[in-house]
């Protein structure tokens, strides 16, 4: 156990003190500073902050690593460890290790991710509920969780309880999803991966589950696809699903059209970015831990981002090596990669990872001690206790590590190599081959000094494809491994580095740059004479727009004598970008098939898996998605996720709308095309550019059908009492036969009060646009699409633009919670991960919310 204890007189800092000091540390990067203070600075449950800058955090981590090092021969000293991790330059512990190492204020795990699963075989309510409880127990300790549902019997199977037949696996997807949404993790929600085998008879229901509005919103879903299914798709042949899956003596089986189900997978992924694909035979065939399957190391699912396939009750800790830092003379003709230093640091990183396992075992002991000390009786505590005992056993036996990288995109740009090019792919493969060989070398060397992982058996591993590649790359290393063993059962991954890359100020993981330059806004005081007001939002706040350069793109500009403090026009920025090594190498520029081939080539040198997303523009067809999936399988990828721009918002339609679309997408609509004479209506009040506005929204079945909106206090006097929230919009006729829309409500005495001619109360120049929006709503267009259409209208008049903002603001009230906000950025952290929640825009990255 760690001897570190809470110091009652430890110095504390206010949020502002830590932020200002960290802002200076990150050279003015407010986003990096805020992320570090909010997520990684040492703090207690009362909000006291004990670290002022990342230097304090790195000192804390270095002390703990050095403490573990002292247990073994030839230990690294604290200053050596500190030099490796300081400034996020070379070696970066990720997430849970960064927040948890040396943290005496939280009883939590250092593992980033876990997989659970009753050894993948339990199909009783008891087993299913046990998994639910284990999932919650792990999430409250900050862990992401994955588990597979292939063990649950299919819908309609006979059972010996009062139901007589089983409900299938979809209801349990919703249960596990809801559990995820209920667990808080210090300002963020837990992460869950649910998977199922394509061989399961309910696989199609699983694939469709998230297509229904509001369903399974707390989980990522992926399908485990075997080679037999893929071959059936290629050969246009049928495929037999079984339960238990792949059983020689199934209790249920059915023959399906493989190509038809494949097209559904492709369609759903094209429309909603899910399900992800896991090429399961490739995973199992390549997995080194699966050589020990009979000892409990059979891989059953992956972590939420898919980069770590795991057996039940195993977990993994993550660390990233910053590739950009090994480029000497970056962005110059003399740029080169320092392989000698790189190899040295890979060995150090693997050693640090092994030390972190010892620290994790101490953390698990602390968790077990807390469970034992809790006042509940043993019957209540047994599931949680046994969970952590199982996790401890796997950590001790396998000592699994997760060395990865970040800044691949910046590394290639700094070397003058275009991401996604043939030369870029070749260099990336060389980098990851180097990591694999040197990490395995370090693990063999650690086994010589510290002992091999307890169940190591070279005979079991001799035919494994990955081990054979190591042998072919370095035969001496292979024979050393036969002699001394290996310290760790599996070592490598490529994870999405997320907030880590904000602090390294580089591209994330293996991905290319998202954008080399973009615009952000900062709120300003309009009365400040020095302030420049470029934009006034719907609530009247004033904002200044300014250009933000990706950090390494800015470095390229400085090296090449291009001013970074000038207020460039968009045309000037386009010219600058075109001269840079980032030109046509962004996430939306890279050749998609080439990126898949790159992933497959790199995967051969990563013993776990790779988290990578293929970003596609909105207008690509489904055929391309299918082609990318097929290419990924043939290239040797273990999994792949495709995201078509804006695709997630397209999924949020009701069941009735979905059925109508399937029956006849050209003619049937969700709403009647002929307007009823009377519509129930909501009143929505809001502030629009400092003016008080009102919207009358006619509803059918609770959904917007038409909208009238404008200034609330105009000279015609549409001023409703504040207590009026609902009423009726009635279509009447004027004497000349033209249509008139009246609004009627009851006053407090019960009398009916009518406002005549809504369409004439607002400025007539708005009216054609109002009819356009009403028409899109009447023909059953999903509400978020109507909002999007409103936002995309090219309106010339400033007053019409203000009206457009009002329409969009009013409609957002009806957008389903969880809907992705397309083409919008968070004003606080510039993330594009925005969703609508109760009509407000909420950032999933930093948690900030913007309501009109």
UniProtKB/TrEMBL annotation:
A Pfam family: Ribonuc_red_lgC
Stretches assigned to the Ribonucleotide reductase large subunit C-terminal domain: 111-643
Keywords: Cobalamin, Cobalt, Deoxyribonucleotide synthesis, Disulfide bond, DNA synthesis, Nucleotide-binding, Oxidoreductase
Catalytic activity annotation: a 2'-deoxyribonucleoside 5'-diphosphate + [thioredoxin]-disulfide + H2O = a ribonucleoside 5'-diphosphate + [thioredoxin]-dithiol
Domain Ribonucleotide reductase large subunit N-terminal, chain residue ranges per copy: 29-94
CDD domains attached to this UniProt entry: RNR_II_dimer
Reported cofactor(s): adenosylcob(III)alamin
E.C. number(s) listed in UniProt: 1.17.4.1
GO molecular function, one term: cobalamin binding
Family as reported in the entry's similarity comment: Belongs to the ribonucleoside diphosphate reductase class-2 family.
Record function comment: Catalyzes the reduction of ribonucleotides to deoxyribonucleotides. May function to provide a pool of deoxyribonucleotide precursors for DNA repair during oxygen limitation and/or for immediate growth after restoration of oxygen.
Name of the protein: Vitamin B12-dependent ribonucleotide reductase
Organism: Leeuwenhoekiella blandensis (strain CECT 7118 / CCUG 51940 / KCTC 22103 / MED217) (Flavobacterium sp. (strain MED217))
């Amino acid at each position: 156990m760690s001897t570190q204890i809470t110091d009652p007189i430890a110095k504390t800092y206010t949020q502002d003190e830590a932020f200002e000091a960290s802002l200076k540390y990150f050279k003015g990067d407010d986003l990096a500073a805020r992320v570090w203070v909010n997520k990684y600075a040492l703090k207690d449950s009362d909000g006291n902050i004990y670290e002022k800058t990342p230097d304090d955090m790195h000192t804390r981590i270095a002390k703990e690593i050095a403490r573990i090092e002292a247990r073994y021969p030839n230990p690294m000293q604290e200053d050596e460890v500190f030099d490796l991790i300081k400034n996020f330059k070379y070696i970066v512990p990720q997430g849970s290790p960064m927040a948890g190492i040396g943290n005496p204020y939280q009883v939590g795990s250092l593992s980033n991710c876990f997989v659970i699963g009753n050894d993948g075989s339990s199909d009783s309510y008891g087993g299913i509920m046990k998994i639910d409880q284990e999932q919650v127990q792990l999430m409250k300790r900050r862990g992401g969780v994955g588990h597979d549902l292939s063990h649950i019997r299919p819908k309609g199977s006979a059972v010996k309880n009062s139901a007589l037949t089983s409900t299938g696996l979809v209801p349990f997807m919703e249960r596990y999803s809801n559990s995820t949404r209920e667990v808080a993790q210090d300002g963020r929600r837990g992460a869950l991966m649910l998977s199922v085998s394509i061989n399961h008879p309910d696989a199609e229901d699983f694939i469709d589950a998230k297509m229904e509005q509001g369903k399974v919103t707390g989980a990522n879903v992926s399908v485990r696809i075997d080679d037999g299914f893929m071959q059936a798709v290629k050969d246009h042949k049928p495929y037999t699903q079984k339960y238990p899956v792949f059983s020689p003596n199934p209790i249920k089986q059915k023959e399906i059209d493989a190509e038809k189900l494949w097209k559904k997978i492709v369609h759903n992924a094209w429309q909603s970015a899910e399900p992800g694909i896991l090429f399961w035979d490739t995973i199992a065939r390549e997995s080194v831990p699966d050589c020990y399957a009979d000892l409990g190391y059979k891989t059953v699912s992956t972590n939420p981002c898919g980069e770590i396939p795991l057996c039940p009750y195993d977990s993994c800790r993550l660390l990233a090596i910053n590739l950009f830092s090994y480029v000497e003379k970056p962005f110059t003709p003399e740029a080169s990669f320092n392989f000698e230093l790189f190899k040295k640091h890979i060995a150090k990183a693997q050693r640090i990872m092994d030390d972190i396992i010892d620290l994790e075992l101490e953390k698990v002991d602390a968790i077990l001690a807390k469970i034992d000390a809790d006042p509940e009786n043993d019957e209540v505590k047994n599931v949680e206790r046994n969970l952590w005992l199982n996790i401890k056993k796997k950590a001790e036996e396998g000592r699994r590590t997760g060395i990865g990288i970040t800044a691949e995109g910046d590394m290639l740009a700094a070397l003058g190599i275009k991401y996604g090019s043939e030369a870029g792919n070749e260099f990336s493969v060389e980098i990851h081959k180097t990591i694999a060989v040197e990490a395995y070398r370090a693990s063999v060397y650690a086994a010589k000094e510290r002992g091999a992982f307890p169940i190591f058996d070279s005979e079991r591993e001799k035919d494994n494809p990955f081990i054979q590649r190591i042998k072919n790359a370095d035969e001496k290393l292979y024979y050393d491994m036969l002699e001394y063993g290996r310290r760790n059962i599996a070592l490598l991954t490529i994870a999405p580095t997320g907030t880590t890359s904000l602090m390294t100020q580089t591209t994330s993981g293996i991905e290319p740059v998202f954008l080399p330059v973009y615009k952000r806004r900062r709120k300003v005081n309009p009365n400040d004479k020095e302030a420049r007001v470029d934009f006034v939002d719907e609530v009247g706040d004033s904002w200044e727009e300014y250009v933000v350069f990706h950090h390494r793109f800015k470095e390229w500009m400085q090296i090449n004598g291009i001013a970074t403090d000038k207020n460039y026009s968009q045309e000037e920025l386009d010219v600058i970008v075109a001269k840079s090594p980032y030109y046509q190498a962004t996430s939306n520029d890279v050749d998609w098939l080439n990126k898949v081939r790159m992933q497959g080539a790199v995967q051969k040198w990563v013993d776990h898996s790779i988290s990578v997303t293929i970003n596609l523009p909105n207008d690509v067809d489904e055929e391309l998605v299918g082609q990318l999936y097929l290419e990924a399988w043939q290239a040797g990828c273990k999994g792949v996720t495709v995201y078509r721009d804006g695709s997630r918002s397209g999924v949020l339609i009701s069941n009735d709308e979905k059925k109508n679309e399937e029956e006849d997408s050209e003619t049937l609509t969700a709403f009647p095309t002929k307007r009823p004479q009377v519509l129930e209506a909501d009143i929505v009040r809001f502030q629009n550019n400092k003016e008080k506005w009102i919207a009358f929204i006619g509803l059918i079945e609770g959904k917007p059908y038409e909208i009238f909106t404008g200034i609330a206090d105009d000279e015609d006097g549409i001023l409703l009492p504040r207590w009026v929230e609902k009423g009726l919009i009635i279509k009447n006729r004027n004497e000349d036969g033209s249509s008139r829309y009246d609004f009627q409500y009851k006053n407090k005495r019960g009398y009916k009060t009518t406002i005549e001619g809504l369409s004439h109360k607002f400025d007539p120049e708005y009216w054609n646009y109002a009819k356009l929006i009403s028409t899109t709503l009447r023909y059953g267009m999903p509400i978020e699409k109507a909002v999007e259409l409103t936002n995309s209208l090219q309106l010339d008049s400033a007053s019409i633009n203000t009206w457009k903002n009002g329409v969009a603001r009013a409609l957002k009230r009806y957008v389903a919670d969880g809907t992705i906000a397309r083409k919008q950025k968070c004003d606080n952290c510039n993330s594009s991960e925005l969703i609508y929640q109760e009509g407000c825009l909420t950032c999933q990255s930093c948690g900030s919310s913007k309501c009109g």
